[in-house]
Amino acid sequence: MGHYIDVDHKVRLFAEDLNPQGKKTIVFLHGWPANHNLFEYQLDKFPGWGYHCIGIDTRGFGKSDKPYYGYDYNTLSDDLRTVVETLGLHDFILAGHSTGGAIAARYMGRHKGFGVSKLVLIAAAVPSLIKLPSFPYGAEKQTVLEIIKGTYNDRPQMLRDFGNNFFFQHTSQAFSDWFFNLGLQAAGWATATIAQTWIKETLFTDLEVIHVPTLIVHGIHDKIVPFELAEIQHKMIRTSTLVALEYSGHGCFYDQKDEFNTLLRKFIENQNG
Fold first, then answer.
1. Of residues 57, 218, 250, 255, which has the active-site annotation?
2. What is the rounded distance in angstroms from the CA atom of residue 46 to the CA atom of residue 77?
3. How would you class 122 by CB atoms within 10 Å of its CB: exposed for 0-12, middle for 13-18, buried for 19 or more?
4. What does each C-alpha distance from 21 to 4, 143, 229 come to in angstroms?
5. 205-230, pLDDT tens digit by residue?
């Protein structure tokens, strides 16, 4: 069952809502440049295990509206707050992948983690995706600039190249095409502007105020968000646990989907954090 939720000046977000009667709620925030279907292999399983699962399409992506504005982390976290309030969510698990992890971190800082009981950062692009003069970790700024340039000049080829670096395990051509089509469902301007946000914004102060139990999952072969960022997240979030997946790249929720699903399920059910 899907919902369209008004979040800002008649901008509507799409939220897939599965098994509303579930015992615990998991809110999934997808990474760039896809949509909630990126978590297909979690949404296939967790509702059947008795969980209430909500997958949100970020503005500009998937089935959500695609305005020309609002792609900064503040607005994106405000969008999430509106969805949470509209659906009456509380004591939920917030799981964000890559840019979705950045949105989740800003939500924890800006909205004081409203309604969140546990946090899951999956290959999260925090505290800064790119290297800075005072932060010599992450990706090169030029890599992001090339992505932006490719988006404006040949977005399909940019998406194909990005997809080739996304997973560590072998994927079929059919799967590669499926992932490619997720990216095509986004607006070009949204795709480029989110990439610009990676350059403009950081999330150091957001991580410092996170106090809920946090699971950090990161593939050691990640070519998009280097594993070293997960180690920094773990140091900055006192209540965190870091799990390194040895046979995963950026798409660890698929590269090792069975291990990932087991990790997530155990983390949710752990009464001690």
1. 250
2. 24
3. buried
4. 19, 44, 36
5. 999 999 999 999 999 999 999 999 99
Is 167 exposed, middle or buried (CB count within 10 Å of its CB: 0-12, 13-18, 19+)?
Answer: buried
Residue from 169, 159, 155, 163 nearest 246 by CA: 169
What is the architecture, at CATH level 2, of domain 2-269?
Answer: 3-Layer(aba) Sandwich (3.40)
Q: What is the pLDDT of residues 103-119, one digit of tens each?
A: 999 999 999 999 999 99
21 closest CA partner among 50, 45, 49, 48: 50
CA angle 133, 139, 140 (to 5 degrees): 60
Among candidate residues 98, 128, 240, 248, the one labeled active-site is: 98
Residue 134 is among the residues annotated as catalytic for this protein: no
Q: For residue 98, indicate whether it is catalytic.
A: yes
Task: Tell me whether residue 255 is one of the annotated catalytic residues.
Answer: no
Of 39, 24, 97, 42, the closest CA to residue 261 belongs to 42
Please tell me the pTM assigned to this model: 0.97
Q: Pick the catalytic residue: 77, 222, 248, 255? A: 222
Q: How far apart are CA 272 and CA 36, in angstroms?
A: 29
